[in-house]
Amino acid sequence: MTLDDRKARVLRAVVEEHIETGLPVGSRTIAKRYALGVSPATIRNEMAELEETGYLDKPHTSSGRIPSDRGYRFYVDELMPQVRLHDDEVYALESLFRSRAKDVVSLLKETVKVISDATNYLAFVLGPDSGEVTFNSIHLLPASSRKALLVIITDVGYVETCLIDAPDMTIDEMRYVSDMLTRNLGSVRLDKVADRAQALIREEASRYAEIIDQAAAFLRGLATEPDEERLFVGGTANLLSQPEFRDVGRVKELLSAIESEGLIQYILSNDHREGDPIIRIGAESPVGAIRDLSLVYGRFTAGNAEGRIGLLGPRRMDYARSVAIIKFCERRLSESLS
Amino acid sequence: MTLDDRKARVLRAVVEEHIETGLPVGSRTIAKRYALGVSPATIRNEMAELEETGYLDKPHTSSGRIPSDRGYRFYVDELMPQVRLHDDEVYALESLFRSRAKDVVSLLKETVKVISDATNYLAFVLGPDSGEVTFNSIHLLPASSRKALLVIITDVGYVETCLIDAPDMTIDEMRYVSDMLTRNLGSVRLDKVADRAQALIREEASRYAEIIDQAAAFLRGLATEPDEERLFVGGTANLLSQPEFRDVGRVKELLSAIESEGLIQYILSNDHREGDPIIRIGAESPVGAIRDLSLVYGRFTAGNAEGRIGLLGPRRMDYARSVAIIKFCERRLSESLS
DNA sequence: TTTTAGCACTCCTGGGATGAGAGTGCTAAT
DNA sequence: ATTAGCACTCTCATCCCAGGAGTGCTAAAA
């Protein structure tokens, strides 16, 4: 279904006006602020037809119109301009990615912070799933007299550590065990590592069985860690400044929705290419709690695993800018993590 | 200033009733629900006197009373019962501290989560200041062909990592540098380490100057990291279910207050012993944004550094239970981190 | 002297009623 | 096909009023 030129222009005006003000928009406003060259009455007629065909809604009989999900969808697919980010925004993001004395987790967290502040929406990053990751090397380091620190470096740059019991081990023994573990378990996917470790214990019949056991348990833990563990959310406070959240009930609902499994599963279930962010408007997402919010998110790759980065905002969010920001982050995250 | 026995009982009844319901409490309610053995009229007289002496307030002329800051203070100091935690609460907390396959940061984060869920208040932990910490050992590990991972283990169990440029180094070289750094910089306080590193570079006149430089820069970064970096907050969503936050403006104000330097500085500025949590009621804290909230927090020690753990709730928070929870966490955190 | 019952008074709260304002839909004129 | 004009609809803020909860005061009872 397509729209004739003038209807499209009216729709675009309604959407953009509504995105800006958050209020229902009337025919007079459009006539005044958008140079369509026709009178309010004509626009009224067009709006009536756009309503009949489902692109616009009326909150009540005698108010202005607001875009329906379908209206936003048409706008996003056909009318939305491609925006360029402001120089200072680009600068803020670039400096994030340039200073590389950081671990992956900090990078992801800071990215979330920057883009939520830049948009006033809620931002999230879903880090690469460690289960699909292989690890680069594993090290045992002395931590105290009876403890050792297990350090695991994955191929996407995650660094995971945990303290394990390792009484009476010399540094040389630790090095030996480190080498053995790296040799035998490196380049095995994390979710397969537990089995391999069992085999290793049998082969070696060694006095290090206990160490290997602890290491395997930890690796197993990493692989089976629930999705929420690698979700970083930022900008809750920003969201509160959106007028649609003057009702606290909404906010609560939303916050718990984000932490619930459902939303993450939904985001992961959508297959898409990098550089082509997914936009889900209002009730297009099957997740109830965000039925009057919109979602713009993309994916980035880190080694052979992938993560997601996105924005969650009111249905009247600024899609054009959001898409530009997400695209930028997709690209730069993928570069930084490879 | 002290109160005669009956006034104290009336005050206690008003405080406890108000904590439970959140509403102004009237004389009739107290006569009915608390067995003081006197009529509402008598209670009215007592309440009038308590109001005159500043222990109670009236929202308006003909409503029930609510405790003033002073009333809460008297309650907290003189009337509040010592509560024991429920078995299941103790269990939830104990299992947190028992499973020790965790790094410090996760432990702190999970503690925050557990106690904010248990209380429905906002919980926070301020981790030990790394500037006052010495480190245990420092290691260089191969990460990729041109990069090495710098791992620093502090004496309180923090593990900090960062990637640095280290082209063409063999494992043996890395071990050599690791040993050198640990020998020369270990047991130096983090905030003194930069100077020491400069000295080291001069002494060694070595080809590893660049590595040492990067390590020193990172250590310096740790030491000068702002206080907020080690602040973990949890339970924002819980706070929204408190009736005093049905107004979104409040919530926003509060969220930004927490992230502001001021509150943290205030908390750090109070000296106190472990096992003796500080209670700050309403306007007792000089930080404007929490002038109608209360703060209950304690301290824990980790090596020779110290951290803080606390709850931020409405002025009518359940002080008795909050104190019990904070005491418990103080003790167990100190045990776990030493 | 202390406690209590009684009662007038105050103030908040919630439910209509009202009027202004914004915007529409329709009709008739251009 | 477009536009001006106008009656109509609906929301929103305000005001008013009655109901209810609670107080303070006075006078009687313990």
Distance between the termini of chain A: 42 Å
Mean pLDDT over the full residue set of chain A: 86
Rg calc of chain A: 26 Å
Number of strands of chain A: 10
Instruction: Give the strand content of chain A.
Output: 15-25%
Q: SSE order of chain A, as H and E?
A: HHHEEHHHEEEEHHHEHHHEEEH
Class from secondary-structure proportions of chain A: alpha+beta
Fraction of helical residues of chain A: 40-55%
Top CATH class of the largest domain in chain A: Alpha Beta
Biggest interface, residues from each chain = A-B, 36 and 36 residues
Number of domains of chain A: 3
What oligomeric state is this?
homodimer
Task: Walk me through what this model shows.
Two copies of one chain form a homodimer. By secondary structure, chain A is an alpha+beta fold. Chain A has three domains: 5-79, Arc Repressor Mutant, subunit A (Orthogonal Bundle), CATH 1.10.10; 87-130 and 228-336, 2-Layer Sandwich (Beta-Lactamase); 131-224, Heat-inducible transcription repressor hrca homolog, domain 3 (Enolase-like, domain 1), CATH 3.30.390.60. Helices cover 48% and strands 18% of the residues of chain A. The first copy, chain A, has helices at 5-21, 27-33, 40-52, 69-79, 87-98, 104-119, 171-185, 193-204, 209-224, 236-240, 248-259, 261-269, 319-336, and strands at 56-57, 66-67, 122-126, 135-142, 147-154, 159-165, 231-234, 278-281, 293-302, 305-314. In chain A, a hairpin with an 8-residue loop joins strand 1 (56-57) and strand 2 (66-67). Chain A is elongated and about 90 Å long. At the A-B interface, strand 4, strand 5, strand 6, helix 9 and helix 10 of A face strand 4, strand 5, strand 6, helix 9 and helix 10 of B. Chain A binds a DNA duplex (30 and 30 nucleotides) through residues 24, 26-28, 38-42, 44-45, 47-48, 58-64.
